[in-house]
Each structure stands twice: as C-alpha cells, then as structure tokens.
UniProtKB/TrEMBL annotation:
Residues 316-404 form the Reductase C-terminal domain. Pfam families: Pyr_redox_2, Reductase_C. This is Ferredoxin reductase. GO terms for cellular component: cytoplasm. Residues 4-297 form the FAD/NAD(P)-binding domain. InterPro entries: FAD-oxidoreductase/Apoptosis, FAD/NAD-bd_sf, FAD/NAD-binding_dom, FAD/NAD-linked_Rdtase_dimer_sf, Reductase_C. Its cofactor is FAD. Keywords: FAD, Flavoprotein, Oxidoreductase. The keyword Flavoprotein applies.
C-alpha cells in the first residue's frame, strides 16, 4: 500500500506524522521536507538568549525510525497528481499516497528587486537566523522593516546582543494587526526605553546597498544607513503545489472544519491553511502560530485515518520580548468594547467583548507567569462562549477561574 504522505516537515507535519502512530495507524508514513535539517523549532530563531546557530530539533532523530516514520530531508515536492493519488518529487521521483497532508507552512513576503542573502534578509529558516545574528553585536547597526512580531523580537534580540537597532513601520504604530493599541504602545515604549529607534508612519522610498552597508531612504527623505536590513513585513502561505493541483485557495489552502481540502483525500494544516474558526461560527482565518500548527497536525492525522474530529481550538499566540510576554487568545475582530484588568504596574490584560457581551478575545502583556495563567483561563471562557460580567473582568481581585 501507499500509506500516509505528509508534505512539509515543520511543526504541523511532524506532529501529524507522530499522531498517526499515536492513533494506531500501522501502514507506511512518509514525511517529506525540503530543508536540509532535522525538523526544528522556529520561535527561538528570533528570541534573545537562544542559540540561533544550533538547530533546536522538534524531535530527536532516533524517534523517526522508532516510530517507523520515513523522514526525507532536502526533498521538495514539485506537484500533486490527484487523479493518480501521487506526488511528484523535484528530483523526478513519484510517490503514491492513500491520504496526503499538506503542511507546507508560509514564506516571508519579499520586496521585489532586492538582493537577499548578504546584507538584506528575511527570517524563516535557521540559515537566515544565523546570518542576521552575525550582525547583532557592538558597533553594528541593524535596520528592521516592519513592526510585527518578528521585527520586534529581532529588535529586542539585537539590543540584548549589543547592536544599534532602527525599526521602521509604515503604519502609525507597531503590531497593527491583532494586538490592541494600548498593549502595542506599551511594548513600543519599552523598546524605545531599551534604545530601539522606532519610526512609525513612514513608508520606504528606496533601499540601496554597497560593499559595506545598506541604506534605507524613507518617504520623507530621511536616510538610514545600516550594516544589515531585515524585511519583516509578513508571510504568505506556501500554496503553489496545491493551487496547481486545482485545490481551492483563499488566503491559504481552504479546508473545512475537519481540515479536509476541496479534495477529500487531501488535508492541510498549519500556517499554509485557511480554516473555519468554530468558536466564531466558522469565520475563516489563517494563523501563523506554533500551537495552532501542532493542534491542527493532531486533528488532521485523526481525520486522515477516517475519524471525524472537528478542529475547534481557540486561536492562541505568544511573543517574548525582553522580559515581557505578550499573549493573545481568540480573535478580536467584531469586538465593540474593551475591559482592562491591571495585574501590576507592568502587567495588564485586555478583554474584548462583542455587542452581546460575549468574550471574543483576551490579550495580555507583562513579565511572565500571571499573564500566561490568566490568558489560559480567558481562553477557556472564550471556548465556552461565555458572557462574563465586565465589572468582574476588570477587578483583579476576582479570580478569572471563578467566572468559568
Ligand atoms: P513551517 O514550520 O513553516 O514548516 C513547513 C515546512 O514545509 C518548511 O520546512 C518548508 O520548507 C516545507 N515545505 C514547503 N513547501 C514544500 C514542498 N513543496 N516540499 C517539501 N517541503 C516543503 N509562533 C508562535 O506562536 N509564537 C512565537 O513566538 C513564534 N515565533 C516565531 C519566530 C519566527 C522567526 C518564525 C519564522 C515563526 C514564529 N512563529 C511563532 C510561528 C511558528 O513558527 C509557525 O506558526 C509554525 O512554524 C508553523 O508550522 P508549519 O508546520 O505550519 O510550517
């Protein structure tokens, strides 16, 4: 038999491969990844204190043979032949599948016409992280384009390692997408206190480089000279092989609530897919989130085996910058009111409610533990579609647990 084939050996693909075994599947499992490494964790690549040069493996190499999973690295899938139930490898090999999982992830958005690699970088892989890290030291000036999570995490990492950092964001503030203004501004202030030069509300006119430096000219004519530039302006889902095979695409590979694509033999999970978010009545979203990739890998594996599991997790994301953690549970779209809960001078939670008083989302910023614990409880409230009393949410002496 041809068995289960998984394209993409990242968080979602690896989890799915092992979940197939955990769920009792005994046929062949093949995991194909185009990177030359063992599957590795991406979050540490942009976080200070982690060793970017050493790959942090998702699982130890020995676990693949132990679980009888055939893992092939450096193996790019070029096409899907749906009629034949097979995939075509870039090196011309063909592999048949009984069920196929696409876990191809996402790739950084580029600015066309730039020469990437030496002084101009994007960040998704361990090689790119190592290249960026080389300029993170005293006497070097790193320019970051984009005030999203990756840009901000790199700014914090750059400062920790002694580099000067300038961050340019076209929007009026950092983290416009998905993080409430109050928390974004608090975080921005912290970056400025740490010495990051943040410029918001400015587009880029030109980017030029010579042998030793890179120059960014802003729309208002200001010139910024740096030793390296990181472009952190978002990511696009890797949908090429799915699109060529005629699968439905809509900001990602379209899946239903079982993570099945428009072809019942093909599933998708992780950053590459757009799925209906059950807790919001099936409104579509595509997340770029570590835990989402794992959870979707688990559910996709079950459904590849003919089970009927609905993916209904609440979206959740975290980011670490300096000693602060930022966490967001749920999606705030459609919220009409916000309730704040002060945990301490440095830690705050925000709850976002819809017109009926239902809790849609919660976000928190602060040093470690308290934020994480309360966001976890908020996530449970969101999952239960709770309508908590706003006065209770605002009162830090009321335990969130008591509202469950
Ligand atoms: P990926 O991890 O991207 O894996 C997909 C794999 O498929 C890749 O190896 C790709 O090369 C391969 N592939 C693609 N096409 C093919 C093909 N045709 N043939 C073979 N292989 C293919 N999330 C958080 O929640 N918190 C964080 O703090 C956080 N920090 C992050 C920091 C960085 C620098 C980055 C890049 C991401 C971060 N994320 C974070 C996001 C998180 O890492 C992703 O959501 C997660 O990796 C998604 O897993 P995935 O398996 O869907 O995709």
């Amino acid at each position: 038999t041809s068995g289960m084939v998984i394209v993409g050996a990242g968080e979602a693909g690896v989890r799915a491969a092992f979940a197939l075994r955990e769920q009792g599947y005994q046929g062949p499992v093949t995991l194909l990844g185009d990177e030359p490494h063992l599957p590795y964790e991406r979050p540490p690549l942009s976080k200070a204190g982690e060793e970017a040069e050493t790959v942090r493996a998702i699982v130890a190499e020995a676990r693949f043979p132990e679980a009888e999973i055939v893992f092939r690295r450096g193996c790019k899938v070029a096409a899907i032949d749906r009629a034949e139930h097979s995939i075509v490898l870039e090196d011309d090999g063909v592999l048949r599948y009984e069920r196929l999982l696409l876990a191809t992830g996402a790739a950084p958005r580029h600015i066309l016409g730039l020469r990437y690699g030496e002084r101009i970088h994007t960040l998704r892989t361990v090689e790119q992280a190592a290249a960026i890290r080389r300029v993170m030291r005293d006497g070097q000036h790193l320019i970051i384009l984009g005030g999203g999570f990756i840009g901000l995490e790199l700014a914090a990492m750059g400062r920790r390692l002694g580099a000067a950092v300038t961050l340019v964001e076209m929007q009026p503030r950092v983290l416009m997408r998905g993080v409430p203004e109050r928390l974004a501004l608090a975080l921005q202030a912290r970056h400025e206190a740490e010495g990051v030069n943040i410029i918001c509300g400015q587009g880029v006119a030109t980017i030029t480089e010579d042998q030793t430096s890179v120059t960014v000219t802003l729309a208002d004519g200001r010139r910024i000279d740096g030793d390296a530039l990181v472009i952190g302006i978002g990511a696009e889902p890797n949908t090429a092989i799915a699109a060529e095979a005629g699968l439905a695409i809509e900001n990602g590979i379209v899946v239903d609530d079982h993570l099945t694509t428009s072809d019942p033999g093909i599933f998708a999970a992780g950053d590459c897919c757009s799925y209906p978010v059950a807790v919001y009545g099936g409104r579509r979203a595509r997340l770029e989130s570590w835990r989402n990739a794992q959870e979707q890998g688990n559910v996709a594996a079950a459904n590849m085996l003919g089970k009927v599991e609905v993916f209904d997790s609440v979206p959740w994301f975290w980011s670490d910058q300096y000693d602060l953690t930022l966490q967001v549970a749920g999606l705030a779209d459609g919220s009409v009111s916000t309730v704040a809960r002060h945990l301490s001078n440095e830690a705050e939670l925000l709850f976002h409610l819809d017109a009926d008083g239902r809790l849609l989302s919660a976000s928190g910023l602060g040093p470690g533990g308290a934020v994480a614990r309360d966001i976890r409880l908020a996530e449970m409230l969101i999952a239960r579609r709770a309508h908590p009393d706003p006065a209770m949410l605002a009162d830090p002496s009321v335990k969130l647990k008591s509202l469950l």
